[in-house]
Amino acid sequence: MRRPFIAGNWKMNLDRAQAVALAAGVAQRSAEFGAVDVAVCPPSVYLAAVHESVAGSPVGVGAQNIYFEVSGAFTGEISAAMAVDVGCRYVILGHSERRHILGETNEDVNRKVVAALAAGLIPIVCLGELLAEREAGQTADVIRQQFDGSLAGVSAEQINGIVLAYEPVWAIGTGKVATPDQAEEVHTDLRKILADRYNTAVADAVRIQYGGSVKANNAADLLAQPNVDGALVGGASLKVEEFMGIVAAAAK
Ligand code: 13P
């Protein structure tokens, strides 16, 4: 049985006071939903403060990115060990905004996955097609290429500690959520890819989140799909009530 996992990706939003208050609100409500793993992923400058704000609660903290080198002259970057040092349990890797705005390649994502695992972080690895790719019938191919490239060399033991997030780019921040069937189709493909590359035990164990315009009022239908194990939530994770509405849907 896969434990549902709801993570909030706050992206580049909020100030310090707002971040701390939001984290405290989520932490306070999270005890009601013991069957669900909950995480918040603030901007890196607020990680330490947010970690302090959720202390004593089951809420995990995640970074939105790390660099793959251990240390050195990499101005502006943070390492996996630094993320761990300020309290991170998770790190989002290969988010479409990093792939398409910041130019991250599958190879970059792969190196970051390796670095995250070495530091003991749980990577949340994002995969997803552009609208043009979906319209051209290329979704399955794009997902497989991203999976193969981003997770190259990852062992069966390591993949068990990884979370996948299917985030169709056309659904992110657009209010155009994938239908439950569209999400389930890709999640099922991902499970087949996992079974082919590893084995059925791995395919059954790895959690696959859906992300893209998830809200409290559409989460239940998505999460009811047998292969949708949680959500990676952007805009709706910025308000306690809205985010906890999604967590509540996962708890059902
Ligand atoms: P929205 O929920 O705002 O569409 O963002 C999804 C996302 O990118 C989460 O990583």
Give an overview in words.
The protein is α/β, with parallel strands linked by helices. Helix content is 43%, strand content 15%. It has helices at 16-30, 47-53, 80-85, 96-100, 106-119, 131-135, 139-150, 156-159, 180-197, 200-205, 219-223, 240-251, and strands at 5-9, 37-41, 60-63, 90-93, 122-127, 163-166, 207-211, 230-233. Strands 1-2-3-4-5-6-7-8 form an eight-stranded parallel barrel, surrounded by five helices. α2 (47-53) links the parallel β2 (37-41) and β3 (60-63). The longest helix has 18 residues, at 180-197. It is globular, with a radius of gyration of 17 Å. The mean pLDDT is 97. The site of 1,3-dihydroxyacetonephosphate has 14 residues, from β8. Residues 9, 95, 167, 172-173, 211-214, 232-236 line the site of 1,3-dihydroxyacetonephosphate.
